[in-house]
Amino acid sequence: xxxxxxxxxxxxxxxxxxxxxxxxxxxxxxxxxxxxxxxxxxxxxxxxxxxxxxxxxxxxxxxxxxxxxxxxxxxxxxxxxxxxxxxxxxxxxxxxxxxxxxxxxxxxxxxxxxxxxxxxxxxxxxxxxxxxxxxxx
Length: 137
Hints:
CATH class: Mainly Beta
Number of helices: 2
Helix content: 10-25%
């Protein structure tokens, strides 16, 4: 199995379901952008999470538009489309771990922090060396 790490946005709100064996699971898609500028394209991956991982995703309020990272086992899955006839393939990731990606910063807070940083640097006296013991020979 191939291990993969993906950063992408969730395409729909999550819905916790229960399998026939009464195990909780959630299945959802994320979209990632590959390439840059004129060579940019999107890729969709289906994510499958089971048990505690599925419950943790729902409790953390992962929803449509959430930017998350995923690690897991990558599989190429053959499936039948909704028309019941046509078969197709999709990339599926069996989730091992995940987390939110922090988005944006508070510009006012970072500006205040920058100004405090420069002020505090001016207040620090520049003392080079001082009284030190000599090193042993």
